[in-house]
Protein 1
Amino acid sequence: MNLDVLNPKIQEFINSNIGKAVSKLALQKNPFPTVEWIDILNQIAAKTKAKEKLPTWFSTPNIIYPSKISVEQTSSEKTALYKASIVSGENLIDLTGGFGIDDYYFSKQMKNVVHCEINSELSDIVKHNFKQLNTKNITCYAGDSLATLNALDLKWDWIYIDPSRRSDIKGKVFMLKDCLPNVPEHLDLYFSKSDAVLIKTAPILDITAGLSELQHVKTIHIVAIDNEVKELLWELHKGHVGNVKIKTISISKEKTETFDFVLNEYIEIPTYSLPLKFLYEPNSSIMKSGGFDEVGSFHKLNKLHKHSHLYTSDDLISFPGRIFKIENSIAYGKIEMKQFLENQKANVTTRNFPETVENIRKKWKIKEGGNLYCFFTTDENNNKIVLICSKLK
C-alpha cells in the first residue's frame, strides 16, 4: 500500500483527472517523481470506475484504490445494500473480503464483521479505507481465510463467500468446484461454524448446476441492476430440505421490481393466445430465473408460445418488465416486411426466432433507434410474426 498517493497535491491531481483517458495521461511526464507514475495512474483509473459504482468511496477523502480490475470485479453499492438486507445477527465472517464493499454494508446490519483477504496489500488498503469511512465494527485479517476461520473458533451467525473462478478454468459454463475457495468441498466445515451461509456467484452459473453441487439451499436471489443480472445469491441454512424459493430483484433508478416463486412448485398450465392489445417482456432477473410459466400464471397473462417467453393481454396490467402497446402484428414475409419495416428506424428484439437481430437489420435495412419497438417471434401456431409496438414502460 503506497500512502504517498495521499499527498494533498497528488490527490488534487487525481481528482482533476477523473474521467480522462489514462493511456493519454501515461504519455505525460510524471509531475511527482517521488511516487511511481503507474501508481498515480492506477488511482485515476480506479477512482473513475468507482464514480458511478461506488459513490460513497468516491466522495470520501483519502480513499486508496486497488487495481482498476479489482474495482471492476467488486460488488456495486446497490447490490451490496441489497445483500445486507438478507443477513442479521451478531457476527458475520467474510471469507473472500476483496475491496470490502459488501462488508461495509454488512456492518450496518451486524454487530461485528470480519473481513478476510489473502492479499495482504489489499487487506491493508481495505483497513485504511474503513477508517476513512468511520467504520469501527469490521476487523481485517490478511492470509488464508480457512486458517482464520479455524483460528477464531467462533460460532458465526453468517458466513459469506464470493468464490472466484480459477484462472485456468475457461469457457462460459463453470461449476462451483472450479472456483476458489471450493465451496462444495468445504461446506461441511462451514456448517460446523455457522447455521447460515451466503454465497455470491456470477450470473453465468447455471441455477440447476449450482443446486446439484450445494446442500440446504433455501433461497436463491437473482439481482439485476438496470436490467442486467449482476449476481446470484445462494442462501443456505443448515438442515434445510425441501422447497427452494426464487427471489428476482430488478433495481433501476426509477424503482425496484420483485417477483418471487417456489422452484418446481405446481402451477396452472399456461394459457396461450395470438397477440392481443398489450405485450409484456419479463425483466432480466426473471429471464435468468426460468420462471416463465410462473410469472405468466401469477399475472394471469397469455403466452404467445411455449418458448417465446412473451405475454399478452387485452387489459393493461402492472408487470415486472417492459410493457408495450401492440400497434400491428404482421407475418414475417417479404411483402409484409417491405410494406411496414424496410428502410425504417426501429428497436429490434428477437424471441424464439431463427434469425439474429444483426441479420434482420442488414436484410431489411432497418436502422437502429426511434420510437418503434419490433419483436420478431413465433406465435402459438408456430408462425413467424413481427409485433410492431410502442413502448409504455
Protein 2
Amino acid sequence: MSDNQGSADSYWSANLRLIGVCLVIWALVSFGFGILLRPLLAGITIGGTDLGFWFAQQGSILVFLFLIFFYAWRMNALDRKHGVEE
C-alpha cells in the first residue's frame, strides 16, 4: 500500500465517521426526541408548548440546519488536513 493510498483511506475513514456522528445526532433529535421520547418531554414547556412537540416541529429542523453548517466546517478542516481542499 502506498502512502497516498493510506492517506486516502484515513481521509475516507474520517469522512465516514463524521457522517455517522451527524446521522446519529439527526436521528436522535428527529426520531428520538420528536417521536419516541415525546411523552417523557411533555412536562417540559418551551415557547408555550411541550418540548416533545417543539422538537417534532421546530427543534429537529434547527438541529438539522446546525448539522449542515457543522458538517461543512468539519469537512473543510478535514480537506485542508489531507490536502484536498478546493
Protein 3
Amino acid sequence: MLRRLFTSESVTEGHPDKVCDQVSDAILDACLSQDKYSRVACETAINTGFVLIMGEITTNANVDFEAIARKTLRDIGYTDEATGISADKCEVKILLDKQSGDIAMGVDQKKNQDEYSLGAGDQGMMFGYACNETENYMPYAIELAQKLSKKLTELRKKGTLEYLRPDGKTQVTVEYDSNGKVKRIDTIVVSAQHNEKVDITKLRQDIMKYLILENVDHELIDIDTKYFINPTGRFVIGGPTADSGLTGRKIIVDTYGGTGRHGGGAFSGKDYTKVDRSAAYAARYVAKNIVAAGLADKCEIQLSYAIGVAEPISIAVETFGTEKVPNEKIVDAIYNNFDLRPYAIIETLGLRNSVYQKTASYGHFGENTKDLSWEQTNRVQVLKDYFK
C-alpha cells in the first residue's frame, strides 16, 4: 500500500532570510509605535558584512533605521564575523523613498469619505488555512518543525548547547493513515550551525537528547523513524557569510508549510493596508473559526481584491471533503458574519498595533502567534448560531 507522506520545514531566526524579515518588521513596528498611520513597504537584503534596507516608507515617526538593523542582528546573536556577520562592524545602507502617490490614492481617506469604503492597496489573492490536526488548528508537520527550530535557538541562547551559532533549519515528514489522520513521524532533519571546536558525534547526540527527544511526541515515533542531524557533518560557516538573505523569501515557512495554497505575497515589512498581509491574516482568522466551530475538519479560504476597491472580488472555500454543511452555506456564513473589507479587517484584528516583529520568526500562525488577534476563535458561537 502506498504511504501518504508530507514534509514541512522551518528555519531559525538566524537564517539569512529570516534576519531580513526581522529587520523589516522591526522597522515597521518602530514606525507604528510612533505613528499608527505609517505606510511601510520595507525590504532588507543581507550578505557578507553588508545590510541593505530599501523600499517606501511614509511616516511621521522619527526612526533610526540603521540602529534598528544593528540591534536586530545583535539580539539574534550575530555579534562577530565568525558567527556570520558582526552587528557592530557590518555596513548598513539605507535606500528608502516615500510611498507612491498612485497607491496612496486608493487607500488613503478622503474628506467626508466613509472609512469602510477605503480600497485595497493592491490586487491579488490571499489564502488562509486551518485544520484540526493540532490544538492550534495547524498542520502537524509545520507546527512541529517550527517548534523544533524555535527550541534550537533557545538551546543556543540559554547556553545549554553553547557551541551552537544562529543559523539553522529543521524539517519534519509526517505519515498519514487512510483516514487522513497523523499516524507517525517518518523523518526529522536538523541542520544546526556550530563553532569549529565541537565534535560532530557530540553535536548529534546533544541534538537528539535536548532537542528531539524532549520536544517530540514519543507516541508518534517508532523504530522506523529516521533522523538526519547535520547530515553533511560540518556546518561552521553560516548566516549571511554563507548565503545572502532577502525579506519575503520564506513564504511557505511563514504560513502552513506547503499545506494548502499560497497567493504568492510575502508579509514582513508591509503595513496593515497591504492586503498581502492583512487579508492573509483575515483568511486564517475565518478558516480557524470555521474549523473550531466544527463546520469542517479542514478549511482553506481564498480572498481576492482589486486595488482601490473595498469589497473582496471573490471569496472561495475548499474543505477537502471534510465539510459538515455544504460549502456554499459556509460561503454564505462568511459573507454574513465577517466583514472582509480592508478597513474592517484592520479594525476587527487591531492591526495598527506594533506586533509584527514577533511574527517574523517561527511562523505567522499557530503556536508562535496564538495570543494575536487573527488566531482567536471568538466567532465560533456566532457561526454555530448561524447554522441552528
